[in-house]
Every structure is written in C-alpha cells, then in structure tokens.
Amino acid sequence: SKGSRSNTLYVSFLIKILTFSYWDFKEKMSFFLLDNGKLTRLKCQAAWAHRMCQMTELVLFQITVLGTPAEESGGGKIDLIQAGAFADIDLVFMAHPAQRDTAIFVLHRVAVKYRGKASHASAYPWEGINALDAAVLAYNNLSLLRQQLKPDWRLHGEKQNIQNLKPNIIPAYSELEYFLRTPLLSELNNLKAKAEACFRAAGEATGCQVSTLLSSGHKGICNYLAGSTDFGNVSFVMPGIHPFFYIGTDALNHTEEYTEAAGMAAQLHTLRTAKALAMTAVDVVCCPELLQRVRDNFRQAKLEQK
C-alpha cells in the first residue's frame, strides 16, 4: 500500500503494470472474449505476467490484471477510478485491436428532456405543447451546426422515449441522447456551449421545458495521443499507453465482420502485442531513469491539457 512505501531504491522499482480485459456478461467469461468485434485473450495476459516475473527476478514490482467491463457506454474504468482501484498503481498498459492507429477523442454524453403538454391533435391542437417538435428542432439545429464545426469534432445522437406517439395525440414528453467528441478536453467546452444553445433554442421555439444532463464522460488520452475510451480518464490519473494492433483484417471495428475475424487466426497478433507490452514494462522496471522521465513528461502533459 502507499502507506508502506519508503524513499528507498525499492520505491523507484515498485511498479504495478496494468492491462485491461473486456468482459462479456452474456458469455460469462468465455475463453475468448469476443463482443462486437473486440478481442482479448486472458491466456495472453497470464503469460505476460508470468514472463515478467521470469525476466525481472531481482527487481521488486507488482503486476495487476484488472478487468473493466463496459468501456464505451458504461465507463467501467471511471467507476474504478472513483473507487480507488488505481490509487496504488504507477503505470497502465492497454491495447486494442484496430485497422490502423487512430485518435482517441474526449467523449461526453448529453441527455436532453423536453416536457410539453398533451392534447388532441385534431380537436384541440392549440392546447398542446409538442415535445416531439422540440426534439425534431433540436436534431435539425445540431445537423446544421455541423457545417461550422472543426473537421475533427463530432456530435451524433438519436430521439428516445417519445410519449403518446400516436397520430392524434400531441406528445408531452421526449428525450434526446447525444455524444459530443473532441480531440482535446480543452475544446469540449466550446462544443458543449454550441450544442446546449441548440437544445435551448428548440425548447424556446416550442414552449417546452428543457433539462439537460451531462455525464462525466471519457477524457482523451493525455499526451495528445474517432472513437472514445474511458482509458483516457485513467491516463489523466497516471501515465499509460494505449497502442492499437492489427489482427489481419480490414473489417471495421464493431461490425459482424470484425467479430468473425477476431477468432483463432487473430490470436497470434494478440500474443505478439502482449509480448510487446511486457517488454515495454521490462524497460521501465529495469531503468529508473526512464521511469522518472515518464513521470516528468506526464506532469508536463497534464499542465498542457488544462
């Protein structure tokens, strides 16, 4: 624990190496964790840990293999950060299959609720306040906004939970859920302000009450590493790397084709990546000067991200 650390050489070499596995609740931890085109082999992680122990017998360190379910929408790593799971870890390693190196975007989820007043659409339409109209206007506002956004900014969403969705009833309630993405955390506030103006304008135009709920979301990868991952949140707590590796297919992630490709033939690529992470960890464990440079660069990167 941190309370037992001292200012000895042991401290410099005490390093917890962390890798993440994906958890498929439906499959109850099958040997290959395949979920919508993602691939992780637990055996590779175990071999990695064992190899590290063999190669660094004279160096004190600790390896932690931590499974974190629900990466994109649930934010399992965010919950673990808040619970203190990373409090005593020095470096983190994670790898993800992909066709090429890709940017990691900051992601924030926005839930928007419009409350109006139900009425008969034919007999008394003037008595109603149409929450569906508000959702449609907000959707159109954001669609028009895209023309003025930077090329690497993203916003996308959908309409949800439309109450009384019948031709002869003016809906009194509607919801929107949107994802806002930017490469840098510092850019997100600008995009949020633009999006919130679109949401509010739709409510004012229709007379609906508007409420927005902004989630904590996923941060980008610190150090400036168009998807998003909650590993970005971890990288703002401690130094880490998140390389991508090719599994022998040009199919896109999160597709049925990619899931099919992430089978036995892809395991060799996964094993090679696990070995590369292990050797990177060996470099850091065996070189305290490198570890210090990593920490110094991490502190500087955090200052630049503010």
From TrEMBL:
The lineage of its organism: Eukaryota, Metazoa, Chordata, Craniata, Vertebrata. Gene3D superfamilies: Zn peptidases. Belongs to the peptidase M20A family. This is Peptidase M20 domain containing 2. InterPro entries: Bact_exopeptidase_dim_dom, Peptidase_M20/M20A_hydrolases, Peptidase_M20_dimer. Residues 107-203 form the Peptidase M20 dimerisation domain. GO terms for molecular function: dipeptidase activity. It comes from Nothobranchius furzeri (Turquoise killifish).
